[in-house]
Specification:
With 322 residues, the chain is of the alpha+beta class. It has three domains: 2-51, no CATH class; 60-153, Helix Hairpins; 159-315, Immunoglobulin-like (Sandwich), CATH 2.60.40.1400. The protein has eight helices and 16 strands. Strands 3, 4, 5, 9 and 12 form a five-stranded mixed sheet that branches. Strands 6, 7, 8, 10 and 11 form a five-stranded antiparallel sheet that branches. Strands 1-2 form a two-stranded antiparallel sheet. α5 (63-87) crosses α6 (100-111). The two termini are 51 Å apart.
């Protein structure tokens, strides 16, 4: 019943049953499954192909795909104008009569405002097509330039999260910990980490909901994020994680979501990155290996080769938490 109601909402079903049935047959299907502690969505690419905006698509695809699309559109434009020139007869001076390639490369010269002078329009029809192509060239150049600039100006985030989360005592309280590090040499200003705990619950009325808890941290922000950061949530009497077990976490399809926001010091743009931990990624009675080392001359350095490593807490009972 819920699936049918969702289909009616997405497909815009009206009172005419036949129209709704036709729409439902044509619409792409999206399947949502829960595997390995994460939601897996299949068929989403087909759905986005129908509904995604062209601007958003051209901004988010990889550079290779963007360049390929621009090249294909460029060749298509020149092909269409070459055909238009040929339909007007021999209107291009010094071009072989009926030669598609002469007309194509004349279109390339016109679209790029090259103007070698060897070929030029000689009839009113050819001059008209050249005028239209010149306007097309302005629009095409403006669109491609704007898209390329928008892609270059998008802020990118290089923040590394630990592969696992650990639960270990801290000041006598079991504490959930994750580790994050800025992989660039610059700083992320006013950085803030937020931790969310998601699980399925049943209300008193018997309604199934996906509850999202915000987990308070001992320190959730820093004025300058350039060194590794361990975010810690104490599992006390106010924590939704109090008394949970691995079996209960699996049963409720629990997920830990960590989000980090801040401002890039170099380009002064807002950054946002997140990481998801499944139930299997949360290790109990484990601790992160310390990655801070002091040299004999008093200097300190960070060894990122052990960033994701953990060990039993009995082996690091006196190890500091950075």
């Amino acid at each position: 019943m819920l699936r049918r109601s969702l289909a009616k909402f997405l497909l815009g079903e009206t009172s005419v049953q036949q129209r709704s049935s036709n729409r439902q047959r044509r619409a792409p299907k999206i399947h949502v499954a829960f595997q390995n502690g994460l939601f897996q969505v299949s068929g989403l690419d087909d759905w986005l192909a129908h509904w995604q905006e062209p601007y958003y698509f051209l901004i988010t695809i990889p550079w290779l795909g963007f360049i390929l699309i621009v090249t294909l559109v460029y060749c298509l434009i020149n092909t269409l104008f070459a055909i238009a020139y040929l339909l007007g007869g021999n209107g291009i001076a010094n071009a072989s009569p009926g030669s598609f390639w002469d007309a194509f490369f004349f279109s390339v010269q016109t679209l790029g405002a090259i103007g070698y002078g060897a070929m030029h329009p000689t009839t009113s029809y050819a001059h008209s097509i050249v005028t239209i192509e010149a306007l097309t060239s302005i629009l095409f150049t403006a669109l491609v330039t704007g898209l390329a600039f928008a892609r270059f100006s998008l802020p990118s985030v290089r923040v590394m999260f630990s592969n696992v989360a650990v639960v270990r005592p801290y000041n006598g309280v079991p504490t959930l910990m994750i580790r994050a590090a800025n992989q660039r040499r610059n700083k992320i200003l006013e950085a803030k980490i937020q931790m969310y705990f998601l699980r399925d619950e049943i209300s008193l009325e018997g309604t199934a909901i996906r509850h999202i808890y915000t987990l308070p941290l001992l320190r959730d922000h820093t004025p300058s994020f350039n060194l590794p950061w361990t975010a810690m949530h104490p599992i006390d009497e106010h924590s939704p994680l109090l008394g949970v077990s691995l079996a209960s976490l699996r049963k409720t399809k629990s997920v830990l979501l960590v989000a980090l926001t801040g401002v890039d010091e170099t380009v002064a743009q807002a950054l946002h990155v997140r990481h998801t931990y499944s139930v299997e990624d949360i290790l109990w009675d484990r601790a992160f290996v310390d990655i801070f080392y002091d040299t004999e001359d008093g200097h300190r350095y960070v060894d990122f080769s052990h960033f994701h490593e953990v060990t039993d807490i009995v082996q690091v009972d006196e190890a500091p938490i950075r």
